[in-house]
Amino acid sequence: MRSMVRGLRSAVRGVAAGAACVALCATVGLTGTAHAAEVSDEQATQAKPAFPSEIKGWQPIGRYEIDAASQAQGLANVRPPGAKPYLYYTGNTSIPAPVRERGWSHIGDPDSSRGYLFDAYQGGGDATAKMFRVTTPSGAAYEYVHPLAAGEAMNNSFAAISPDSRWMVSGEWDTMNRLLVFPTPLLNPATARTGGDLALAGTIELDRPVKDIQGCTFLDAKRLLCASDDSDRKLFPEAKPLLQIELKKALNGRTVTGHVTSLGALPQLSACPGTAVDFETEGNDYDRHTGVLRVEMIPPRDCAARATVYEFKRKR
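-> structure tokens emitted (316 positions)
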């Protein structure tokens, strides 16, 4: 996320490509175009170019490009009841106009559960709250606002829904020793039915610090995979590490502990020259039905209008 500076930089990258998207995004609440947001499982898992990878335990299976302005903040696989599954993307130009007008100027990495979509929003640097917007399978949208607790950063990088759908994990920018846990709006009966305030349920206290987490996704009830934009190698040997967080126990609405390990550096491949700091890690998603892990990466400079989605499956 690189705070609000990153969001502004990414928006400038794709302003020409994204301008045509704004009207449609405001109408349908999707990203890019309806076709781009609704990519079927079959399309998403077709054979694609392989690539070298340093991620431990994961086999690269393909990669493809997306529009950075409208699709490169994050992605989620969506499985609506009685309908075909699809991939949903978010980007700087995908924020619906009424949402942006209310001051929610940055969107993070989304997630989905039971066909519901969960988008993470933040405001400007002086914001005193963060917002999660939930879209139901029928298309209704509700906003849940979380007033910042003492010492809580205003950033809202991602939403990650637990496999039982009851808990939503989010994160703060910069170097942190925790992740935030909320009751999942609508899917947890403790939340209001039509939006409103959202209180913190607990935290995941990490056994080592992490930095600049752009997205997390649940591998199972006790493991998350988190994509980091950290490039300085002070916390982990690799730049842009994919981190695994193993929970001592499944989320239950109370504070739990998490053990952090790096699985290796995320791919940083581009025709444009640059070091790790010139790339930008974005959102990630694990589809528990297909076993496919996807991670977004924006390449440097002149190549930054198109981001790359890298796909992996666990090694056997």
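The two ends are 33 Å apart (CA to CA).
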